[in-house]
Amino acid sequence: MANAAFRWMMTGLGQPIALAQFDPFPPASGEVVVEIAGCGVCHTDLGYYYDGVRTKHDLPLTLGHEISGRVVETGADAAYWADRAVIVPAVIPCGTCDACRRGKSTICPNQKMPGNDIHGGFATHIVVPAHGLCEVDETKLKAIGADLADLSVIADAVTTPYQAVIQAGVRPGDLVIVNGVGGVGGYAVQIAHALGGTVVAIDVNEAKLAKIAENGAALTLDARALPGRELKAAIQTFAKERGLRKTEWIIFECSGTRAGQETAFSLINHGATLCVVGFTMDKVEVRLSNLMAYHARALGNWGCSPELYPAALDLVLAGRVKVAPFVEKHPLDQINQIFAAVHHGELKRRAVLVPVH
Amino acid sequence: MANAAFRWMMTGLGQPIALAQFDPFPPASGEVVVEIAGCGVCHTDLGYYYDGVRTKHDLPLTLGHEISGRVVETGADAAYWADRAVIVPAVIPCGTCDACRRGKSTICPNQKMPGNDIHGGFATHIVVPAHGLCEVDETKLKAIGADLADLSVIADAVTTPYQAVIQAGVRPGDLVIVNGVGGVGGYAVQIAHALGGTVVAIDVNEAKLAKIAENGAALTLDARALPGRELKAAIQTFAKERGLRKTEWIIFECSGTRAGQETAFSLINHGATLCVVGFTMDKVEVRLSNLMAYHARALGNWGCSPELYPAALDLVLAGRVKVAPFVEKHPLDQINQIFAAVHHGELKRRAVLVPVH
């Protein structure tokens, strides 16, 4: 049964995720079958499963959009990919529409997100378009002591902040602030640091702050201990000590909470860039006019263009962004327990579910 | 007394603005004395005078930052400007600091705004740095049937939205929305139209909408008649009819009101750009995460870099942006009555106060 394929299906809000067999073979033209190495558990998955955020594909649906694996069968026009190790983009643009042709693939109206538009990565196999796949050099992978499953999180947790950092234009000498240094924000810190930024990490969790202090953050601040204007004042003091600018801070909001977004907005200074990376359904109350008064900007970004994946992967394969210390692998068949554990904040690292082949 | 100089001083919140003589001569090195042709009355002036917004310079202070005139005396190093017709930038950067040298003059910490940092334009004369002055070709000016006083509004009402339009990158084929088509928004419509955008104008004032329909707006919408999602739906229908994109709208918020900002934010779609041009002290309640979900952005801009003034002036001198139909000139010595009339919304055009020389 080496080729038997299984996937875990969400059938309803909070209902037990159920195993189902399926047949991914043969892939259609332009598609490939990927034997999954690992699939990361993202808060977006929990949003669908616990909070009632609607998936675009009707239930039952296999969740999971942080996928790495190996191509085991190729459809017509996809022969190049045979037997290659790959990362599947969390958002797969069509590559042919007007938006894609104008280089705006993140707003492609035909984009497919595994675990939302199509069956996702909590499975042994997945069928995806070959377009946008990111090839992994396994010799380099071995050299950094990671395995292919570790790289699954590149598909969202690493590339989404990577695109935000590129879009914001982080350069050496910049003062960068990351609010919320969990599964996504931790990579925002590492990436901004790798590109030359001096990074201030903010969170409400001491353990996360302690860990990120060893992985790129030059200063860590507990938001609970610095109410109101004290947070901004602490960063101003730090900037002065380090000889960094008191203007043009680049702020990454990665907590995806109302309080976090309001905190991040309050840190806007002259010429600042606020990058909205985390998502919450909640509205926030902010003085939008500050963007005008400070000549500042707020940038959102959805997923990451596949064209940026190779550069993000390069940072990981060069050892400049570490993935392995931030993930913990669990067998895929424990998916129900792991979802519950993540939901209850019991895990310290991002969970990657690994199928048995 | 051809050279006697007078200015009108704000002495306190809502107190009668009082005439005072002063001596602007001789200007210091790098400075010039401008004999003022006209100075526009901006809502920012009313904010200082009626709402208690603090000026940076202590009272008494001469307000007014939309200034055109003629250089009548030059200090050392400013001889070039002798006898030239000029527009004085509303925000004058120092030109030598770190921010200025990096091309970020709008966040220059040493910038001078007439009527805020230094005595302003409700006067017969003003002393300003020569740096940043915008020269006016009076032959071209005569050809469009305008006079130098008409051009005063270029210093803020025209150039501020001009910088916003340039920053947003409006190009032919773009669907542009301008919310609030008063003193500033009316120029946003004209400028975006001149650069090839198809412009939808939104306001709550039928007269303003009727006027802008004759000056660049392809569609006018009364926000009061289109509650909730109906406004966005109406623009979507228009886009479809015109064969314009249903994504990447470029929205200019020029009302400077809480309701207007919330309306403008609600129009964000995939790849949209929201330009925050108007100012209000009020906070707004918005779902900031929509910037992320739609891969959209919100851009603020403060004033306008002097380097952009010549191009904005060119649009006016080429007749592509009309100024004269949108201003009404009044004698400077009626300043108290005109402030009151603007405050009570009694004027249909932007008031320009003209001194007698």
Q: What is the percent of helical residues of chain A?
A: 25-40%
Could you tell me the number of beta strands of chain A? 16
Q: State the separation between the terminal residues of chain A, measured CA to CA.
A: 9 Å
The helix-and-strand class of chain A reads alpha/beta
What Rg of chain A is obtained from the alpha carbons, in whole angstroms? 20 Å
Low-confidence stretches of chain A: none
What's the oligomerization state?
homodimer
Specify which chain pair forms the largest interface: A-B, 39 and 39 residues
Written description of the protein model:
Chain A has 357 residues and is of the alpha/beta class. Chain A has eleven helices and 16 strands. Chain A has helices at 43-50, 98-101, 138-143, 159-168, 185-194, 206-213, 230-242, 258-266, 290-293, 309-317, 335-343; strands spanning 5-9, 18-22, 31-40, 66-74, 85-88, 125-129, 134-135, 175-179, 198-203, 217-222, 250-253, 273-276, 284-286, 297-300, 327-331, 350-354. The radius of gyration of chain A is 20 Å and the shape is globular. Chain A starts with a strand and ends with a strand. The relative contact order of chain A is 0.15. Chains A and B meet through strand 13, helix 9 and strand 14 of A and strand 13, helix 9 and strand 14 of B. Strand 13 (284-286) of chain A pairs antiparallel with strand 13 of chain B, so a sheet runs across the interface.
